[in-house]
């Protein structure tokens, strides 16, 4: 049996899967941590093939000897992610600070505001060299990621250092709500006076991102300690939305949780943390989550979640950390989770003692759902990560 093949009776072992391919390795001397926080998106309105775009935090460009300002590189694949080439860069044309942290990409499936279907929307954190401010800005590309233009600012915050009493905004995530309006979800540290260390909120735009309604809280714990963050949202075939996010702090210790919305805007009581992404054995995903849906695995498909590490009930390393994904076909309570082999096994931070490893790990199923692309930042040496990816068959005998 060749690598990547399996039968229903014989699941592939994580150790039998390769270490993946390198999308980008930072050059020697690039600032720590090199490259991290990748995102990948399929372009269904580009007829050049099975087109994907990927981007990530690019620390070579944070060094003024190498670039005038930080920027987000954009890579393009026309064969479903097997091969890639750099196609463009997203530059800060509004603040003269640079685009530094937490990029994300989203192809509009329909016409939205002034944008036609197939327009690619990007969002990221614009931050000056002294890290004194944070600003989540939105850019758009009408030529499938070749060129970019500034659209608007979603949120402005304070110093880009977490948990220091400052007021930054972080980690944008893009989606369309059930009415076809553009939504940006983000983590927000600006509400400490109301008892929130950090919360997840969103803003809705009815004109394609040109203007934004007031912020609405989605996950917010008013104890002044616990920090919901890193939201990722996907839509299910029945029209509902699911959000995964981490909760850093003394109560939940980085655990990954899932909430459900009927429309992408209403997530219930913000203080209700939802359902833990946790198996019956007590193994829970911790930090840096990502969620996707695949049509494979059953009549309603399967929800898949990645996480930075997997921990047991004592928050010690659990079997499969760095080697598995979480999967469920329980679309009622989202309580029945199991682990499956990940396409891209990696040495996680528990192995290499480097916190930045796999800070986020996007997942992208093939159109038929039978294969899965996984991308993340993996350890190169004491100071650098590279962006790697792998595509493997899915084994979903849940």
Summarize this structure as a short list of keywords or feature phrases.
42% strand; globular; mainly beta; 26 strands; 398 residues
Task: Give a quick summary of the entry.
The protein is mostly beta strands and 398 residues long. The chain has 1 helix and 26 strands. The radius of gyration is 20 Å and the shape is globular.
Explained architecture:
By secondary structure, the chain is mainly beta. Helix content is 1%, strand content 42%. The chain is built from one helix and 26 strands. The strands form seven sheets. Strands 1-26-25-24 form a four-stranded antiparallel sheet, with no helix packed on it. Strand 24 and strand 25 form a beta hairpin. The longest helix has 4 residues, at 349-352. The two termini are 22 Å apart. 55% of the residues are buried. The model is unreliable at 1-12 (pLDDT under 50).
Major sheet attributes:
4 strands, antiparallel
What's the pLDDT, averaged over the residues?
94
> What is the approximate shape?
globular
In whole angstroms, how far apart are the ends? 22 Å
User: Percent of residues in helical segments?
Assistant: under 10%
Given the helix and strand composition, which structural class is it?
A: mainly beta
């Amino acid at each position: 049996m060749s690598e990547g093949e399996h039968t229903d009776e014989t699941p592939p072992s994580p150790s039998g899967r390769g270490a993946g391919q390198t999308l980008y390795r930072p050059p020697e001397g690039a600032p720590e941590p090199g490259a991290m926080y990748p995102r990948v998106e399929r372009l269904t309105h580009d007829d050049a093939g099975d087109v994907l775009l990927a981007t990530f935090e690019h620390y070579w460009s944070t060094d003024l000897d190498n670039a005038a300002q930080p920027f987000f590189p954009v890579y393009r694949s026309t064969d479903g992610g097997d091969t890639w080439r750099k196609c463009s860069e997203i530059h800060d044309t509004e603040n003269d600070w640079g685009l530094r942290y937490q990029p994300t990409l989203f192809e509009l499936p329909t016409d939205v505001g002034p944008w036609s279907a197939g327009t690619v929307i990007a969002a990221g954190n614009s931050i000056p060299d002294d890290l004194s401010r944070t600003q989540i800005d939105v850019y758009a590309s009408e030529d499938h990621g070749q060129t970019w233009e500034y659209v608007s600012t979603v949120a402005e915050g304070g110093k880009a250092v977490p948990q220091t009493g400052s007021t930054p905004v972080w980690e944008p995530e893009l989606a369309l709500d059930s009415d076809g309006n553009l939504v940006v979800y983000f983590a927000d540290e600006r509400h400490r006076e109301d008892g929130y260390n950090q919360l997840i909120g969103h803003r809705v735009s009815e004109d394609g991102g040109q203007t934004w309604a007031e912020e609405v809280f989605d996950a917010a714990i008013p104890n002044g300690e616990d920090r919901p963050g890193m939201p990722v949202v996907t839509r299910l075939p029945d029209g509902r939305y699911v959000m995964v996010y981490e909760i850093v702090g003394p109560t939940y210790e980085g655990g990954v949780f899932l909430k459900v919305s009927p429309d992408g805007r209403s997530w219930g009581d913000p203080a209700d943390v939802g359902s833990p992404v946790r198996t019956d054995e007590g193994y829970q995903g911790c930090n840096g989550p990502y969620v996707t849906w695949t049509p494979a695995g059953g009549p309603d498909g399967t929800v898949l979640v990645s996480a930075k590490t997997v921990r047991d009930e004592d928050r010690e390393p659990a079997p499969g950390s760095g080697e598995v994904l979480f999967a469920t076909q329980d679309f009622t309570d989202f309580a029945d989770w199991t682990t499956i082999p990940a396409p891209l096994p990696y040495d996680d931070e528990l192995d290499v003692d480097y916190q930045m490893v796999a800070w986020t790990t996007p997942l992208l199923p093939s159109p038929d759902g039978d294969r899965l692309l996984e991308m993340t930042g993996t350890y190169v040496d004491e100071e650098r990560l590279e962006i790697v990816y792998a595509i493997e068959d899915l084994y979903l005998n849940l």
